[in-house]
Structures are given as structure tokens and as C-alpha cells.
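To: structure desk
From: M.T.
Subject: fold request, one chain
Message: Could you run this one when you get a chance? Sequence is below, nothing fancy, just the single chain.
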Amino acid sequence: MSGRFSEQAMTEAMREVAAGLGVPSEDAQVLRLTNNAVFALPGSGIVIRIARTHRLRDRVAKVVRLAHWFADIDAPTIRLAPDVEQPVEVGTLAASVWEYLPAGFPTPTVEDLGHVLREFHSLGLPPFPLPTWDPVADARKRLADADGLGGGDRDFLMQWCDRLEPRLVALNRHEDQRLIHGDAHVSNLLKEPSGRTVMCDFDATCVGPWRVDLAAVAVGEHRFGRTGAHEALAAAYGHDVTSDPGWPLLREARELKMIVAAVPLLAASEQVAAEFDRRLRSVREDDHRPRWTPFADLTTPAKKR
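Reply: Done. C-alpha cells follow.
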């Protein structure tokens, strides 16, 4: 499928960024084509990450600022590529450029996630403002930038946002506010050559209830049909989020995020569009039996360009 955020369009944008940096792109590999198009250029030791929606391009500037602070305090996080002025503008899109960490062994585990999250949550807050956790506002931005979204689906999602918003406002008001990653799962972990586990993907990083970061694995286990991951995370972190009174609300907020994440990409992938329909139907019908497929598994695997 074609569209503003198709693989072809993102590949062309990547090549433009690489050319601006003065590095070759012949060895580029597609790492991810979800909310961001992520390309590794191993020969140059960098990763180029391009936001696939105009409405959330302001996040790129936030992520770059966070990355500089993380480096200053030696946080367990991936580092920006040195000597690159960021964010990088590429047409109407925005990109960031990172150090390349090749996949290695041992691969990060959910236990690693638990330990890294405990350290991340203890960092305190940066010396600049961050947005408050607001998955409804994020969802509305994605709905405003949708290609191929039917009117009925849009209305259902907007009504869901309207129902959820006041409950999340109340939760935010009464919960301990900390720095949270916002999309904490094993796929957002990498290993440094030293063996240190670090986090990546700070688009959703904000200030909010720290339990949000434990909900992603628990909801993923339920919706994707995985077993054991949530129990292992709870043991490593030292807290079981499903025992909290606010768990049903955290679960619903996570499921909204897991559905609307695909909205700007519906015109770019038939497989993503079909999975979006499957997820939305299961929520509309309150049917927890269908197993969802991660959007990342439906996009093009890593390959040379």
C-alpha cells in the first residue's frame, strides 16, 4: 500500500537524512515500521529514527532534549549520535539519529526490564518540563492524522476517549508522579558492549503514575497470549500491577494506545489495517478471546536497502 507514511516514503526520507549527514545508506536495514520508521546504518554506526505522523513530530524535540539529560546523568538509556545537530528536519517530517547497538547475546529479558525500570523510576525529574501522562490526548492526535480510517471507527474511538478522559485525570491527580518511560516492554531494551541493559524509544516518556510502566507487559501477556512475562516482571521489579485498584483503568488506557498506534498507518499496510480491525472489533464486542498480533510483526523485517 502507498501513503504519506509508507515504507517507500520513509526509505526516501532516511536516504535524505543520511545524505545530509554525509554518510552512505546502501547498507541501511529496516529495524521497525510502526509509529516510527527506524533504520540501522551499521557501516556508519548510527540509527535513523523518523516519526511517521506529523501530529506527533513535537515529540522528536522532546526526545532529543531528554537524551541529552540522560547522557549527563548516565541514565540506563541509548545515546544520541555525537556531533549531529538534532532534531533533523526532513521535508515535513522530523528525525533523530542515535548510536547503533547491534543485536547481541544474551538478548534482553523481562527480568532486565524490571531492573532497568526500577533504576529509571529513581532518576527523578529533569530540569525542564515534561508532559503529563495523557494517553487520551495522544490518541486524539493520532486520530487527527489518520489515513484510511472510517467514520464509524473514528466516532467509536473518539467516544472511547471522551469516556476514559475524566477517569484518567482523576487517577493522575491521586497517584505518585514520577518519570515514566510510557512504553516499557522488552523490545525497547538494548545491550551495550559492556553488557549493560539500556532503554530506547522515549516518545511516550512523561510524568505520571509509575505503575503505567508495569501495565504494558501485563496487557501484552493477556492480549497477545503470552505466559510468564508479567509474573517475571513483577518479581524483578517487586510489584504486581494487576493487584492495584487502578489496574482495570491502566489496562483500558494501554489497550487504547495499542489500537490507535496504528491509525496513521492504515493506508500504508493492509496487514496493519486488518490487525487494527481485529483489535477494534474485540474491544467493541468486549471479546477477550481473540489473540492480537504485534504491529511490529506485520511490517517488513530487517533487510538491506
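Reply (cont.): The first strand starts at residue 29 and ends at 33. Let me know if you need anything else for the meeting.
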